[in-house]
Amino acid sequence: MSDPIDDLLDAAESGKSIIKNRDILHFTYIPEKIQHRKTEQEQVTQALLPILKQHRPSNLLVYGEPGTGKTLVIRTVLRKIQKRVEKSNFPIKLVYTNSKDETAIYGLLVSLGRQIDLNEAELPGNGLAISEVFNRLLKKIDNEKLNVIFVIDEIDYLAKLVQKTGKDILYQLTRANERLKQGSLSLVGVSNDLTFKENLDPRVISSLGEEEIVFRNYNVEQIKKILEERINDAFLENSVEIGAINRCAALAGGEHGDARRALDLILKAGEIAERQQSDKVTDQHVSEASQKMEEQLVKSTLEAFPLHKKLVILAIMRSKGSSTGEIYSSYKNLCKLVGRDELTNRRVKQMLSEIDVSGIITGKIISQGSHGSTKKFTLEIATETIKNAFKDDLTLQDIV
Questions:
Q1: Whole-angstrom distance, CA of residue 227 vs CA of residue 279
Q2: What are 375's strand-pairing partners?
Q3: CATH 1.10.8.60 domain extents, the chain
């Protein structure tokens, strides 16, 4: 009787690998030439040009949907500026952080501090007041006459942290130059959300968005060209069928204009083809990859829901009917089973609307003739997907 692990390892060792370099398909990879973003590259470069002439650039906001090349263009421009300023005596620091990677404002400021060479003794990883952290950052910039360009990717997450904590670090950052006698601090904010400024202090908006650039979505043909270029370097020659490329471009371009999703899709499709010991990536492999990625996205969304939203979803799954009243009745029973206090009917109705937006359930108004109308909810995903997502939640294990 053969060993299944050895069988798979033998197949992997003896089988043909069609992917040469996975890194080229990763969103952090910076190609030599960025396609279909000439105008945006010029705009970002022009906004940051003053630093080369030893002047402070204006603060810059860059908007666009995910996968439209914002971070790629900014990183490329910064890298080329860095090469040029290394030859001069003008002290420039180009700093990058993603606020989504930081769970607190403190961590984001420490990330900035480390990149301008503040060590643990000068700026500990915890224990100081936010105001003191900020003072130490400014002191470093002032003493060493640094000219800092601080790129905050996904700045909308920082804006949400500011709202939650009441510590308006964005206001302090945009006013930093008023406190600096020497050196300067410029901000480049990158956001997937064009509306995030609506909840900011008007004083922050006026200074943060001194210049603004919007990145438009890629169309299907542009995504196809991007794929072809990356595939040439990432895969063996002639190992990806044109039908697979077309399908990737159509799926990504038709939904979001998201080049990152297209690259993820072709990589996942290539991995599926390799597992099946196929010599070529086909459109069928892309379809399988798309389905797996969608399932993983739904699973991740479900896992991230707070307990009571999970209970509401289980109530929909368990209730004989699917009206709001029946769902609430089932939800209350589930709360008793897990020993938690139930939320109000009104709050559960709000949750149903929130979950509806995610696409996991669908709500429809159903006419009941002389009895008026009611809203009924149905699941848009398989019950097995829900069980799989909730099985590791200790509170729900007995129910699931």
A1: 19
A2: 365
A3: 219-300
Q: How far is Cα 210 from Cα 59, in angstroms, rounded to an integer?
A: 5
Q: Tell me the pLDDT tens digit for each residue of 311-344.
A: 999 999 987 668 888 999 999 999 999 999 999 9
User: Burial code of 252-287, b = ≥16 C-beta within 10 A, e = fewer?
Assistant: bbeebbbbbbbbbbbbbbbbbbbeeebebbbbbbbb
CATH code of the domain made up of 38-215: 3.40.50.300
363 phi and psi, to 5 degrees? -105, 135
**pLDDT tens, position by position, 180-229:** 999 999 999 999 887 777 777 777 777 776 889 999 999 999 999 999 99
Q: Are 309 and 395 in contact (CB under 8 A)?
A: no
Tokens 């904010």 sit on residue: 189
171: tokens are: 């206001």
Structural contact between residues 118 and 137, judged by C-beta atoms closer than 8 angstroms: yes
Strand order across the beta sheet in which 60-64 lies: 92-98, 147-153, 184-191, 60-64, 211-215
From-to residues of CATH 1.10.10.10 in the chain:
305-396
Structure tokens given for 395? 């509170």
